[in-house]
Amino acid sequence: MYLKKNLKNIAQYYVSNLIGGRKNTSDWEFEKYGLKTEVIQNKQLALELENACQKDGYLLFSEFLQIDQHGKYGYHLNNKWHGEQQLYRYWGKAIAKLCQYEPIERVLDFGAGNGDLGIAVIDEARKLHYKIIWSGIEINGNLISTIRQAFKRKKYEENLLQISPSINKILSSSKKSLLVFSYSLDNLAPEMFINENQDLHYPTNLMGVTVKNGVVNEIILTNEQLLKKKIQYKNGVLSQNGTSYNLHGWKLTHLQRACIPITAAKILLQSSKKVKQNSMLLIIDEFSEPNYARNEKHLNFPKDLTVFDRIFKNTTKLYNQAGNNLLYYPTYLLAYESILQSLGYTQLQIDNERTLANILAKKHIIQNIPGLCFGILAKKTSKTVNPITIKAY
Ligand SMILES: C[S@@+](CC[C@H](N)C(=O)[O-])C[C@H]1O[C@@H](n2cnc3c(N)ncnc32)[C@H](O)[C@@H]1O
User: For the whole model, what pTM was predicted?
Assistant: First the structure.
């Protein structure tokens, strides 16, 4: 199925580039900046979205994406491939050695996938005669069963503390811990913001959608609509449940949109509350290329891991093909650096992810590996500040 989808996508990419010049400016402007009304091809998913809309009358962009990916008729519960990156091959040893060196006894793996990384960490720690207690958080129930079976098969039950679909159910630990986020923060649905101001400005509004009769409509949310979900967005600061997120660092041109990792910041905050001071955190992820002011493209739009031309230029295809794409949402390295600083993490070590794994595993580094996948290692030494800053520049 992937081969067919990919070949079709490659053909579409080149053909649309060839005929791209034919359209006039207003078509082009609407395609880029207009509020979209689109038919969702997956009828069952459309109904699921419509039902979810009924509570508050609309869905935040993040809520739409969450159902698109993890709903009953969304991508994950109807497809086997969850986007595993196979980094357990070299990160198992790196993490085991880091834990032994620090020393760290507890590992909390967020977005644990099929548990391959957890098993590899315990394999390597056992070789070092070092005991690690692992917990996993995985939203996909099918993968939770896979993880349990894998631990049982290896007879590693004594190393397994908890597997949970949500961070809220994870027990707080009084032991120094390592929080691991490997290709999972970019799996957390971002919020979509827009700048309605004529000038270069931080986002003025959040965006959402309504879904009715199989059709999705984009809307720019009013304060009243946001209050239904207990969210306030004022002067570039979003507040919810006593935590605020400062977005002054995002400068958008007129009607430009940006997907901003509010959910990822929340998860980093919640997971940091579960561990004691001096615990460590490791993020392994793909990032967007750094931004520059007055870049008029929409910023950090979702990507589809299963195709050649990964990024969605506008939201048309995203809505038409909802439930059919394995989405992920890379953002700027700087966005995570600023979030981590707000959460009291210091001593940030940032490197190409393979290079960092080799450093931690004490392997000889032959050459630096180019690419946009980084590893960030940090230690929680200070208190969290409120608001949390999320920067773009
Ligand atoms: C791209 S996979 C990465 C899996 C694995 N960590 C790896 O590096 O191969 C992202 C994983 O995060 C999980 N995930 C997404 N949102 C989540 C959430 N809110 N809570 C827990 N897990 C989540 C997905 O189900 C998926 O298994």
Answer: 0.93
